[in-house]
Design a protein that fits this description.
The protein is about 50% helix and about 10% strand. It has about 280 residues and is an alpha+beta fold. The two termini are about 30 Å apart.
Length: about 280
């Protein structure tokens, strides 16, 4: 695999040296976050994994915001990828404490909450689609935005209608308002599907799933439910849209905002997984 010399402190190493932390400025992740064919998933704001088409590698984020990877994992990367990491290598900080460390060394790992599962499932689906079709359904997010989204959805507490409105609006911005309209429009036209002028977002995705991929299960539906809740939240339109979405989610109590939001997240997660399984 080559012998790229990384800067590290061998005194931080565990065992035979494979588990020696190597530190990087977090710009090392930018290339991967913006690549259409590489998925970057975060279990928390201090623990993530990069998925290349043929391999994966976990990493941590420490208290100073530096990225951490094991020396042994780095040595197993292709030489070109090792060179990329070496360019961002910084001196050892003797600060590897993170959920990455807890999970990999102390075996302390819990499944990410459903909000983070949705964000990761969206990353998995858009990457799988890009690998197959060479277009990105959603625009890539910057490192700080990805970390902030993970931090925000790590613990969802909804005690009031205002809390619910805030979470709905933020999630709609993360997902529905980030659709890559220009690329999808070109993709549709290349497959002899011509969208009407002005169509965007979920309408374009609906055409992609139905008219190009052949979806007959209306898998786009939960994304429209999210959009309907955003309309209800942002406009004085009465409760009809809230009632309609709550009924689709089988939530009888319109004031049980936490149940509505949690069930919506579960539907979004499961739909994204189904899209990847069927068409990824």
């Amino acid at each position: 695999m080559g012998d790229i010399a990384f800067d590290f402190d061998p005194k931080e190493g565990l065992g035979d040296g494979f588990l020696t932390p190597v530190y990087f400025d977090n710009e090392v992740l930018v290339k991967h976050l913006y690549s259409p064919t590489i998925a970057v998933e975060f279990a928390s704001e201090t623990y993530g994994t990069i998925y290349w088409p043929d391999r994966y590698m976990s990493f941590g984020i420490n208290s100073t915001g530096a990225a951490i990877a094991w020396l042994g994992d780095l040595k197993e990367l292709p030489v070109a990828e090792q060179h990329h990491w070496r360019e961002h290598n910084i001196p050892a900080q003797n600060d590897m404490m993170s959920e990455f460390f807890d999970a990999q060394i102390n075996a302390q790992f819990t499944e990410p909450p459903v909000g983070i599962q949705v964000i990761n499932a969206l990353e998995e689906w858009t990457t799988a689609f890009a690998r197959k079709n060479e277009i990105e359904l959603y625009k890539p997010k910057a490192f700080k935005d990805r970390i902030e989204a993970v931090r925000r959805y790590r613990r969802i507490i909804i005690k009031s209608e205002d809390d619910f409105i805030r979470f709905v609006s933020e999630l709609n911005e993360i997902i529905n308002e980030n659709v890559n309209n220009d690329q999808i429009r070109k993709f549709l036209k290349s497959n002899n599907v011509t969208p009407k002028d002005g169509l965007k977002g979920n309408k374009l995705l609906e055409m992609t799933y139905r008219d190009v991929l052949g979806d007959t299960k209306n898998l786009i539906a939960p994304f429209f439910w999210l959009y309907d809740l955003r309309l209800w939240a942002d406009h004085d339109m009465g409760d009809d849209k809230l009632k309609d979405v709550a009924a689709k989610l089988s939530i009888p109590d319109l004031k049980d905002f936490e149940a509505i939001f949690t069930k919506l997240l579960e539907h979004l997660r499961d739909t994204l997984a189904a899209l990847k399984t069927a068409y990824g």
